[in-house]
Amino acid sequence: MSGAATNTAATSTAPDPADTPFTVPVTDRLTYHFLIAVDVEGFSRLSTAQQKQVQLDLHEVLETAAAAAGLDRRTWLRQVGGDGEMAILPPDTDGLLVLVSYPRALAAALAGLNRERTPPIRLRVAMHHGPLSGGLFGAVGRAPIVVARLLDSQELRDELRADPVREMALIVSSSLYSDIVETGFEGLAPEEFHPVEITAKGASFPGHIHRGPR
Asked: Cα–Cα 20 to 30 A to 106, which of 7, 41, 47, 96?
């Protein structure tokens, strides 16, 4: 009996927990998470072959940036689209890694990629922190809506379009600004974030667009 038990354990194919992304369970629990949404400018104007290459390049950039920032994308719950993704990070994620290390690493990875490609990839990035709950078709709550509205806002689109050399435009929610940016930790400078009031579908979504050096 003991030999059989040993053999079963030795041949187990159970996945390593480190390789399994967390999931938001379908329950009435409400947990707080950081959310990061990314979108490629002008994706729909590209040919099918170009779109496929952009997806490959974007994946590489996001993976490189997360690793450089000390974040593990294997633990993120990601909702991907043709031209980007919305990611929900584990509830114990360090906010300074999200708001300081990751944008810097993302800008650096993007710049490195664009030195080797034409046309360059230009990104809109939105960040928020809020409560959500697990639903049958994914996370539900106001937090995913907020980050989606910030990402898709005309204000952020105009910010990126205004500077043809700029490769990335970042917006954070007003709550993320007050909770983290205003701490001043890790060189965060509140004066580098410009307040905007975004209106979409009859609702208001205040945010702050980053305009200073990183």
From this structure: 47
